[in-house]
Amino acid sequence: MIYDVGVVGAGFGGLAAAATLAKKGMKVAVFEASNELGGSAGKFERNGYRFQSGATLGMGFEEGGVLHRLFDQLNIDPPAMTLLDTIMDIHMPDRTIHYFRERSRWYEEIQRVFPTQSSAIQSFYDEVYRVGAIVDQLTEDLPVFPPRTLKDFMHLVPFVNKDAMKLLPFMNQTVEDRLKKYGLHNHRLFRVFLNGELMDSVQTSVEYCPAFLGYAALQTFHKGAYAVHGGLAAVAERLASFIKNSGSDLYMRHPIHKVEKSGQHFEFHTKRDRVFRAQKVLLNNSVHNFHDTVSKEMGEQSYIKALKEEKRDSWGAFIIHGGVDGAVFEGEDAMYHQFIDPQKPDDLHDGGQFLMSLSDPRDSSMAPVGKRSLTISTHTSISPWWNSEQYEADKGQMKNRLLDTVDFYFPSFKEKLDFVLPGTPITFQKWLRRKYGKVGGYMPTGKYSWLNSYSIRTGIPDVYQCGDTVFPGAGTLGVILSGMTAAKEMTR
């Protein structure tokens, strides 16, 4: 059999693309190396607990949202979920900020937390909402961006309108540039807060974040944040079921070690010595792994160069999964928490700021009765983990730093833990096959860094890519958008 499309990787981008293609009547094969769906937003189970691979909010399920549109197109129901009034609580050394979804409540919180600068901060957020809405409108039609072919440029012509022109100033400025307009660039507390949110969503700080990307990320929090019952893996399972029910195939535990061109089609070689064939290719295993996946001849055709790719900065993650007595968080409404280390509040990685997601106490699929599963995640530099001569000691030290910080804000947390499973970039390479443990795409490095983004095109005819290393980048919504964009181009 020769499939219409072969998809390497069952992350959210690959699943969204495969489901969209199957809906259009194409015969698709999805190859996943592990035994779990969802990639970096997947799950695993241990000791009666279900853990999310990352501390991930569910977003895009609101009316008109990315996942709402996708599920509508597929005519399937999303899993059960809880809409969060409080997106997360941000715990800072001297105060806790309640990050509310609803705009009026968020503005009231701004008045409470930042009383002397509340008017300027609210004006800043007015701009965030306005510009974010324009970005949403432009991405709704799934244009290929950055454009790489004449057709890509031609398809962008309809977007050159009055609203798009309003976006231009924000494409050559950083978020910090915009803060200067409102006199907020030297407001230390607000910068610490914003840096935490941007590190979570865009992998960088106000100083280096392109304004339009930062604004799009910041306003997304306020459109609708959800605790998905069963974790985001439940979304992946719905998409996988649709793919199989549509007559396409999903091959778990089938790592692809080489894709090569053979005549008029492509061959997918698995480590089980099986060979599959397809007319087109979609790579959802990250650009980091690109040259390890395609043949040398195909790699030479691509504009993605191995040496350049090796030098590009990307974060890793240090992660902790654990089970805890639910009594520790009794009376707490928030299920997502961001912590700022009271000793080093300006550190944005390696424990200086980190996220913790708690399972919904009403979701029995995530933890035993009276217990809650948790996932803690912080950005970390990759190279020290690979070059460490005392790896286990370093892992233990980082684990203790994170747990001690949570315990600082929630006394008795550590003594109420059932068990703790820490992971490093080496863990991510082992279990998720992310090269060197790189996750979350590329960190923006300045106002024009978006021009260095990879589009869904690889430069090889009939070979496409999607995922967190492809525009619009990190986060489940960005990954899904890249997969839907790839599917659209493959069926033009």
TrEMBL record:
GO terms for molecular function: oxidoreductase activity. It comes from the Bacteria. GO terms for biological process: carotenoid metabolic process. Residues 13-490 form the Amine oxidase domain. InterPro entries: Amino_oxidase (IPR002937), CrtISO-like (IPR045892), FAD/NAD-bd_sf (IPR036188). Pfam families: Amino_oxidase (PF01593). This is FAD-binding protein. It comes from Halobacillus trueperi.
